[in-house]
Please model this.
Amino acid sequence: MIALIGTRSALYVTSHLFSNHWALSAMNRLVPEDIEAYAQAHSMLESDLCRALREETQRRMAAPQMLVGPLEGAFLKMLTQLAQATSVLEIGMFTGYSALCFAEALPPEGTVLTCEVDEESAALARLYFARSPIGKKIDIRMGRAIDTMRNLKGPFDLIFIDADKINYVNYYRRALDLLSPHGLILIDNVLWDGAVLKQPAPDEKTAAIQELNRVVSGDPRVTAVLVTVRDGILVIRPQSRMPIV
Ligand SMILES: C[S@@+](CC[C@H](N)C(=O)[O-])C[C@H]1O[C@@H](n2cnc3c(N)ncnc32)[C@H](O)[C@@H]1O
Model:
């Protein structure tokens, strides 16, 4: 069952496919569409497999806008390579688009461990991962990500957080324990359609993202940049002994 609820100028899609906390806006573009298209046209190309997965996700899933898409996917690949990552942990796989981007950017021995709760999304991801040897780098862990993270050892070179917003601060705190000293944490949707500017927060997800942004920017253990790609990505690295001034 899908409920469509008009609010502001946005379309809100709520589906029983996602947890009670999971209601995602169709995402107003913060970056104008023609600028985004221009940036995409002048960035790393999306692979054929990613394109096919994106198109099938758009045909079959209730909230296809949840996948990061070609421009953010290219950005994730670039950061994976710059970090010289060999191990990636992803919180929130959906149909596997960003997991595939990471797997494509990793060296042959690289691994992606990705967490998901929704069986229908995971079934589509498995179909596409099986189509390429690159898919063998990806290990899907079903169940609540916070439980999966509790039982992981790490360290991971890159941790991408893109699941239920309510748990963002919990994911960030656990991610810091699991991160290698030279690693990167990336957190998606930290502008939340621009709603983070609103005071007081209009709902609990917006409040959770505002809290995350406050916690990260005030955390002396890390340095961070909030990058205005798509819906906002926090790029976080552990503070080195020689702080950048
Ligand atoms: C925004 S989507 C991820 C998109 C994905 N990174 C991509 O670019 O293709 C968020 C995903 O997190 C999953 N999710 C929500 N709550 C979760 C939880 N507690 N544990 C694990 N996954 C969860 C949802 O089912 C959904 O598929």
Notes: Confidence is low (pLDDT under 50) at residues 1-25.
